[in-house]
């Protein structure tokens, strides 16, 4: 639907590669009937789209695509929350209790809310006990008591929330309660299984909050705190994270504003963030010299200080020559990083998309990419640098 396609060319390709499924529009794959006189192509697809999607998702590496955008669990015009599962997309009326009786309530594993949801809808999300991934595009005017329903998502491994900044009513005390495990059987409660956490545009983070997160999330590998620069963000948070979060592979402190503490990298020793493999600091006033010294001490660590860039250098007889640009293949580096368990859904190049559209900015991933740079320069191959 985005491109002007030559259907005849695609049909010829499909005849040469009959195992290849080609979709040129919603609810459709190129398909044909073999007759004595040749192939008769059809303009519609009368098969079971959902069954085909399910079969495709059994292939390792295929995920999060949609052929049918209207696999709805209800026939209602007032639908505004999009939920994804491993098998289909569903539309939920957040004002009604459909989740309580829906058969997929027990099987839905991913829920992505692209924008605002009314507070009385959060309760129903708490009934989706099989959720492993929950991303919320905008938590606006939400209070502690509504946000607390996330506590019921005891299987959650990934939580991403963009808070409403000055329009967010979730308090640090409310989040502390949310992230505190019970003494009895903590492994059966949120946030014990949490591996990936992103808290964006939250202006009331405190050291006490992040102390609780560190103590109660034993499996946490990814921490993102971007866009927390508009109101005073507790000055001690960044030094605390660097000194105490020992298990992180990925840390995003982009757009931390005046509360970015560049001096923490001067005092970093082997006990601080020992497993860190990716550090993103976009939008901050960084001391590049400090970060370069850190990178020389930890050559396996990738540091990105701006879009389309990693700190990189050439080793010479007279020492290291650092480069102000990155001439390697950003996509290949991203692919290599995603092979590390614990690294997920980050973007260094914001324009690696499959379409140029204001509403869609889909990152195109490749399962394998060849990446060559001069052997004298720092190598980013998966078996060497990360």
From TrEMBL:
SUPFAM superfamilies attached to this UniProt entry: RNI-like
Entries under InterPro entries matching the protein: LRR_dom_sf (IPR032675)
Top-level lineage group: Eukaryota
Protein's recorded name: Bm10476
């Amino acid at each position: 639907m985005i491109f002007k396609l030559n259907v005849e060319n695609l049909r010829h390709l499909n005849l040469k590669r009959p195992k290849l499924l080609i979709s040129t529009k919603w609810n459709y794959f190129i398909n044909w009937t073999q007759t004595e006189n040749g192939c008769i192509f059809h303009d519609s697809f009368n098969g079971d789209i959902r069954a085909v999607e399910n079969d495709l998702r059994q292939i390792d590496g295929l995920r999060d695509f949609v052929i049918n955008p209207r696999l709805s669990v209800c026939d209602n015009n007032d639908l505004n929350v999009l939920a994804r599962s491993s098998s289909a997309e569903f539309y939920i009326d957040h004002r009604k209790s459909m989740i309580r009786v829906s058969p997929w309530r027990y099987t839905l594993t991913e829920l992505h809310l692209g924008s605002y949801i009314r507070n009385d809808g959060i309760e129903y999300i708490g009934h989706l006990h099989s959720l492993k991934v929950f991303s919320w595009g905008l938590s606006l005017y939400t209070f502690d008591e509504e946000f607390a329903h996330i506590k019921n998502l005891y299987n959650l491994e990934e939580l991403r929330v963009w808070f409403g900044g000055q329009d967010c009513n979730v308090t640090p005390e409310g989040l502390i309660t949310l992230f505190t495990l019970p003494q009895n059987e903590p492994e059966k409660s949120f946030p014990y299984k949490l591996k990936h956490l992103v808290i964006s545009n939250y202006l009331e983070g405190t050291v006490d909050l992040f102390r609780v997160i560190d103590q109660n999330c034993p499996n946490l590998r990814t921490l993102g705190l971007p866009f927390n620069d508009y109101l005073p963000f507790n000055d001690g948070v960044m030094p605390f994270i660097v000194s105490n979060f020992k298990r992180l592979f990925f840390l995003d402190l982009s757009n931390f504003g005046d509360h970015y503490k560049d001096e923490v990298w001067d005092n970093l020793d082997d006990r601080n963030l020992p497993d860190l493999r990716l550090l993103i600091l976009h939008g901050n006033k960084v001391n590049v010299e400090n970060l370069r010294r850190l990178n020389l001490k930890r050559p396996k660590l990738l540091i990105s200080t701006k879009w389309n860039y990693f700190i990189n250098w050439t080793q010479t007889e007279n020492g290291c020559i650092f480069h102000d640009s990155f001439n390697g293949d950003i996509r290949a580096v991203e692919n290599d990083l995603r092979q590390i368990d614990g690294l997920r859904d980050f973007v260094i190049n914001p324009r690696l998309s499959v379409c140029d559209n204001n509403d869609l900015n889909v990152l195109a991933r490749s399962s394998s990419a060849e990446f060559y740079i001069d052997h004298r320069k720092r190598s980013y191959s998966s078996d060497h640098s990360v």
